Every structure is written in structure tokens, then in C-alpha cells.
Amino acid sequence: MTTSSTIPESPMTFVPVGAIAPKVASGSFKKERLSLAQIQALFDLPFNDLLFQAQTVHRQHFNASEVQLSTLLSIKTGGCPEDCSYCPQSVHHDTGVEASKLLDVHAVQEAASAAKANGASRFCMGAAWRELHDRDVEKVAALIGVVKDLGMEACCTLGMLTSSQASTLKEAGLDYYNHNLDTAPELYGDIITTRVYQDRLDTLQHVREAGMNVCSGGIVGMGESRAQRAGLIHQLANLDPYPESVPINHLVHVEGTPLAQTKALDPFEFVRTIAVARITMPTTRVRLSAGRQEMGDGIQALCFMAGANSIFYGDKLLTTGNPDWARDQALLASLDILTV
């Protein structure tokens, strides 16, 4: 039985000197900072001990009473050829989502201006594409320019990128590129069949080589085991370097998707995932993303205590609901959390 006596004096001393070893893999996953066993041990700590350790690490690197605000806009919705089992935008699932064309500069400028007025410092744009096509690169570059002209950080999630495309987006001013690993490697094939795990690692490598910040996380509550949640964090924490931004999404049960009837995840298990992400990636922005609407204020507060310090807010998170701006402001105010 694990007791509080297993908590080390220093939050990171659970990493033994011999833990860093060569890893035989291509892409960004080149060496192992933390073993899977170490990460599983964190997940298995008593809940209060885990939160204490996460809060201690968090305070070493961030103001524990600050949260960074981001807004995500879908610039091209629906019609995606991928078969991701969780996604309402896939052409493989009947969810009622209509395919749309890429938004123009004026529409993005309006949305970004509104987001800035409501306190967002980062504006993220998502397109339902398998990969970015060369014909769309300059169009996206123009949208990035609009966001940068407003003095905001710009982030995009557009599917897979080539090396040259990543360089072009960097030149356009893109600060962050999001490309989630979604889940542990051993579960990945059960969730998605139209793309392999290495494709995701390759895109992240192109983003790194172009000099952009990496935003990469995953989705929990897709029927995975705790060991598989540990496997996701293991992959992320061993990227070289680990991402500057790690969105942790809670599965949204959308009718028409294969995962619509998946058993709901214990909310405290979600909080554990946030805490382990914070401990293993101490300087990253751990971001509460999809599924916040279903959590309730109490669970969100525990997530902030566990080290989450960034949220998407005030608009729809692609095609799933997100708490509205007034509710978010009220929650943050009640917790005395400042926004950046």
C-alpha cells in the first residue's frame, strides 16, 4: 500500500539518474527522461499526495493564481476524411455537422478582435483537414497575419504538415502548432485507422525543426485504462523537448460518433491526469480543453490546483460546447485567479 512516506522531499527526485536511456524510435521521441513505470507510480499515488506534489511543482515554475486564456475558432468545419472515433467532424460519422469552406480574413479578424476584447491572449485556428494542402498554405498565412497584427499569439491545428509547410507558417508568424498524440500508442489503432502514430510524431518534428512551439496533448475518457493514460503522458513527457503547451481534453460524447456510448470517466481520474502532466512536464502550459462544460466548477477548481494553467474559453471548442464567457469569468473570479 502506498503511503505519504513515498513522497520525495523534492517534487522531481523520483527521477533516478539512470532513467535517461536511449530510445529506439524516429520522430521527436528520442530518449527517455521518465520511464513508464515512474509515471504509472505517480498515477497510483493517493489523491491528496499527488495533488500536493503537483501543486509544489507548479509553484516552482508559475504563479499558481494565474491562468492563460485562449480562444479556438474553427476556420474550416466538417468534411474531414479521417475516421477519428471521437470526432463529430469526420465524414465517416453521421453527427449533423455540415462541411464549410475556409473562413476569410474579415471573419477571422472579427473573431480574433472579439477574443482579445474578452481577455484572450492566444488565438487558435483549427481546420478539419487530414493534412494542410500546399494550395491553402498562403491563405492560412494571411489569417495568421491578421492575428499577429492584433498583438496576440497565434496557434493553428491543421492536420499533418510537411517540413516546408511548417517553415512557411513559421515565417508567417505562427507561434504554436497543435497536433495531438490523442492517446497511448497501443490504443491508437482502436481510435483512428486513417493515420498511424508515427505520422503524428513526424509532424511534431517538422514543427520543432521550423522553430515553432509545440502544442500537443490528448483525450482521456475514451475507454482507456489508467495504464494507457500513463502511456499517453509517457509519450508526451519524453518528446525532446516536451511540448510548451499540453491540452488535456475530456471526451465529449457526441451522438453519431463511435465513442458516444463510452462509459463516463471518473472526474477525479481526469484530475489525476492533469496532475501527472504537471509533474512530468513542469514548465509547460497544461491546458483544460474540450469537455470543460461537463466538469462542473468544483472539478475545474481541482484541475487548477493540480497544475492546469490555461483554458479555452468563451466560444465553441470546434464543434463541441464550451462554457460561455460570463460563466468562465465568474468561476475565475470566485477562485481569485488572474488571467494572462
Which ranges are low-confidence, i.e. pLDDT below 50, for 5 or more consecutive residues?
1-27
Number of strands: 12
Q: Give the CA-CA distance, first to last residue.
A: 41 Å
Which of globular, elongated, flat, extended, rod-shaped describes the shape? globular
Largest sheet: 10 strands, parallel
Order of helices and strands: EEHHEHEHEHEHHEEHEHEHHEHE
Q: What oligomeric arrangement do these chains adopt?
A: single chain
Secondary-structure-based class equals alpha/beta
Average of pLDDT: 87
The helical percent reads: 25-40%
- Estimated share of beta-strand residues: 5-15%
Helix count equals 12
Radius of gyration: 19 Å
What's this, in brief?
The chain is α/β, with parallel strands linked by helices and 340 residues long. It is built from 12 helices and 12 strands.
